Amino acid sequence: MDTHTWLAAVLTVAKMNEQVRDNIDFLKENIALEAAVELTISGGVVTKTKAYHTITVEGGIGAGADQLDTCEGGSEGDILILKATTTGGADTVTIADGVGADAFILEGGVNFAMDHVDDRIMFIHNGTEWVELSRSNNS
Questions:
Q1: Contacts of 23 (CB under 8 A, 6+ apart)
Q2: Is the pLDDT of residue 101 over 90?
Q3: Percentage of residues in the chain having pLDDT higher than 70
Q4: Over the stretch 6-35, which tens digit does the pLDDT of each residue have?
Q5: Helix/strand/coil (H, E, C) string of the chain?
Q6: Which residues lie closer than 8 Å to 79 by C-beta, 6 or more apart?
Q7: pLDDT at 11
Q8: Average pLDDT over residues 72-86
Q9: Taking the alpha carbons of 26, 30, 33, 36 in that order, is the dihedral positive or negative?
Q10: 85-111 burial, b if ≥16 CB within 10 A, otherwise e?
Q11: Cα 25 from Cα 18, distance rounded (Å)
Q12: pTM: predicted TM-score of the whole model, two decimal places
């Protein structure tokens, strides 16, 4: 079997292909190269399962506005992108600044109301909390 040098290690083609596949799988799970996964707020909290999520108010669509305080399941370096599920003030999701463990740390300490399906907010986890990288308010 052919071998290749990858940094200090000598790998067979099969082993290198396996490592490349593992890296691609990791990127798909952690940088959300796939469709957003829906999370529903429960008591102000959601738990991250992927990097890209739609956020639905507690009680589901039509239940009224809700506030998201915390996103559990993050570790240092994780990226999180959130988007609104619906357009319209009735189901507005407000991302709150600095509430609880795994809190969101927002630019200027200003809460972000997501009331349009094209609204987005992006975070990176610093090991303790989610720090805002950018937001897009399209309403």
A1: none
A2: no
A3: 86
A4: 566 666 777 777 877 887 777 777 765 578
A5: CCEEEECCEEEEHHHHHHHHHHHHHHHHHHCCCCCCEEEECECCEEECCCCEEEEECCCCCCCCCEEECEEECCCCCCEEEEEECCCCHHHCEEECECCCCCEEECHHHCCEEECCCCCEEEEEECCCCEEEEEEECCC
A6: 30, 31, 32, 51, 122, 123, 124, 125, 133
A7: 66
A8: 91
A9: positive
A10: bbbeeebbbbbbbebeebbbebeeeee
A11: 11
A12: 0.75
DSSP-assigned beta bridge partners for residue 81: 52, 122
Rounded-to-integer distance, Cα 1 and Cα 100, Å = 54
Neighbouring C-beta atoms of residue 70, cutoff 10 Å:
20
pLDDT reading at 5 higher than 60: no
The predicted pLDDT at position 22 comes to 81
